[in-house]
Inverse folding.
């Protein structure tokens, strides 16, 4: 019962996206019915030509009936073309709408939603799975209507012509139907597993291509080739198992067709000799026999396609039905008063309700316009802390306030415009430098873009490029260095004119002189913006108003550089290890 409800829900989910393609979905089966009717009339007319025209020597009857056959054939051709056209339109339209629906919903996902699906899995669902649904839907509209209709009408016509002979392929159809049912049922289990293997293949390709420079730097091409071949071989083996189950379909089908033809010919010949059957009727019966068995073969193909697409349908429905964890409140606050930030008894876990907390009882108060450095050992949850400010994740317990208001009460767009984040993994998109900068403000003028680049010290290298700000950035920013990419991302964030600017280790690829220039520009040009700077280097944060020390998800210190050197052992250890000034630090303590 649970499985049945799940499948119904999946069909309903996908059915909603037929949209403007409902009419082609209705017209396609109607045209297929018309084509079948025309095909079923032709054998009867052909039998009349043999019995009344040829044996009767009536040339005029042959001509008139031949013209009728031609008209019926043309009508069937028109119906077939119409069914093909509208079927393709309906299936391609459904695929387009499903891709759009998945992409639209993915854009609303919070980071926690995205964590539930791997990038490779989402790519598979948007491409391979949707293509399976497209092919299956077209086959359902055409073959799933045409095949049973053709089989039923042919069977009825056969029994009307001669019940004794028609019973031969009635038994054949029943026997074949039982055999094919068990074959398809066995094969469908393997087809459902195949598409899970596609995720692994796409993951291997995506990881290899995106990290190709690392692969070559470490001479790991053979390893990556081996990994890809393993993922590809898994799909190959799964398909082989499925195809072996289906391989007997055609031989069994053709053997049955030939046996039926031999039996009908043998029995029909005896009946013609005895005068109980005409030659024309026997020809019609043989034609109907072929129609029935070919229709059964088409149905088996439909069952295979439906089996293959059932898993794809559920995977697509999962993406569409996934509800964002983070949504706008009913009456959101639209204005951020200032850049002040408060953490009030904040606990956070990536797996709510079951996971180990990565932030534990955080209490902080940051004044608007302050410059705050954040430092700590690797894995101390520095990035997790700042992700809560712009609601990339929601707290598990407690609350985060920006401008004196809980971030969960803000309109998401306004909040993320007011809290600009340069993430640890910097991403540029294909397009010019201007195009990338205007992600921060799509209406930014050229002068505003240039000013932001001056603050981020990006103007130094941009102006040396042949096309300046119109230089084309390749996908992923592969034609700029790591430091250049970081500075462009900082400039992009500055164009939002945020109340809070968060730099998550965003100058790690810049040299110390450039890093110092950026920090000086921030102090002088955006003094009212609250700046949170996550860094591994003490030099990047020591001139901040205050420095936050995180250790194992807890606040281990929050004070000025001078006070932390005197009073905080963790900070002092980091400072001494990076500067080599252990003795100087001891002298500093004795003097103060």
């Amino acid at each position: 019962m649970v499985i049945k409800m799940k499948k119904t829900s999946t069909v309903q989910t996908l059915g909603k996206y037929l949209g403007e393609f409902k009419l082609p979905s209705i017209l396609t089966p109607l045209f297929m019915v018309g084509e079948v009717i025309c095909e079923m009339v032709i054998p009867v007319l052909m039998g009349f030509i043999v019995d009344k025209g040829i044996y009767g020597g009536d040339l005029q009857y042959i001509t008139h009936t031949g013209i009728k056959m031609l008209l019926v054939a043309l009508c069937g051709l028109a119906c077939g073309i119409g069914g093909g056209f509208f079927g393709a339109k309906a299936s391609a339209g459904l695929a387009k709408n499903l891709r759009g629906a998945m992409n639209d919903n993915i854009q609303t996902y919070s980071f926690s939603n995205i964590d539930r699906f791997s990038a490779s899995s989402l790519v598979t669902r948007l491409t391979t799975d949707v293509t399976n649904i497209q092919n299956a839907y077209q086959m359902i509209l055409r073959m799933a209507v045409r095949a049973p209709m053709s089989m039923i009408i042919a069977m009825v016509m056969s029994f009307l012509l001669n019940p004794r002979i028609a019973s031969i392929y009635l038994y054949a159809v029943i026997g074949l139907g039982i055999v094919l049912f068990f074959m398809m049922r066995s094969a469908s289990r393997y087809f459902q597993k195949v598409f899970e293997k596609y995720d692994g293949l796409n993951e291997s390709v995506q990881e290899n291509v995106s990290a190709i420079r690392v692969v070559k730097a470490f001479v790991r091409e053979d390893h990556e080739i081996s990994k890809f071949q393993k993922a590809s071989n898994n799909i190959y083996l799964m398909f082989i198992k499925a195809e072996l189950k289906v391989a007997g379909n055609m031989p069994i089908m053709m053997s049955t067709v030939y046996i039926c033809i031999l039996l009908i010919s043998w029995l029909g010949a005896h009946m013609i000799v005895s005068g109980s059957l005409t030659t024309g009727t026997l020809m019609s019966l043989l034609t109907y026999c072929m129609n029935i068995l070919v229709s059964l073969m088409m149905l088996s193909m439909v069952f295979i396609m439906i089996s293959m697409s059932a898993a794809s349908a559920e995977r697509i429905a999962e993406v569409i039905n996934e509800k964002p964890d983070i949504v706008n409140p009913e009456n959101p606050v639209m204005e951020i008063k200032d850049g002040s930030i408060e953490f009030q008894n904040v606990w956070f876990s990536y797996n709510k309700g079951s996971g180990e907390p990565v932030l534990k009882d955080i209490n902080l108060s940051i004044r608007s316009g302050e410059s705050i450095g954040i430092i700590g050992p690797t894995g101390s949850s520095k990035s997790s802390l700042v992700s809560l400010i712009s609601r990339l994740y929601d707290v598990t317990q407690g609350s985060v306030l920006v401008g004196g208001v809980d971030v969960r009460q803000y309109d998401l767009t306004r909040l993320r415009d007011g809290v600009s984040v340069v993430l640890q993994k910097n991403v540029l998109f294909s397009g010019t430098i201007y195009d990338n900068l205007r992600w921060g403000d799509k209406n930014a003028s050229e002068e505003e873009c240039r000013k932001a680049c001056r603050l981020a010290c990006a103007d130094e290298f941009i102006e040396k490029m042949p096309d300046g700000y119109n230089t084309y950035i390749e996908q992923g920013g592969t034609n700029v260095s790591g430091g250049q990419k970081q500075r462009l991302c900082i400039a992009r964030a500055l164009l939002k004119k945020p109340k809070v600017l968060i730099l998550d280790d965003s100058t790690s690829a810049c040299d110390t002189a450039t890093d110092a220039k950026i920090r000086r520009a921030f102090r002088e040009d955006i003094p009212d913006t609250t700046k949170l700077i996550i860094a591994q280097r003490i030099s990047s944060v020591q001139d901040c108003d205050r420095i936050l020390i995180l250790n194992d998800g807890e606040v281990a210190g929050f004070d000025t550089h001078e006070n932390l050197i005197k009073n905080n052992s963790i900070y002092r250890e980091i400072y001494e290890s990076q500067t080599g000034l252990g003795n100087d630090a001891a002298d500093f303590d004795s003097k103060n």
In short: The chain has a mean pLDDT of 82. The radius of gyration is 36 Å.
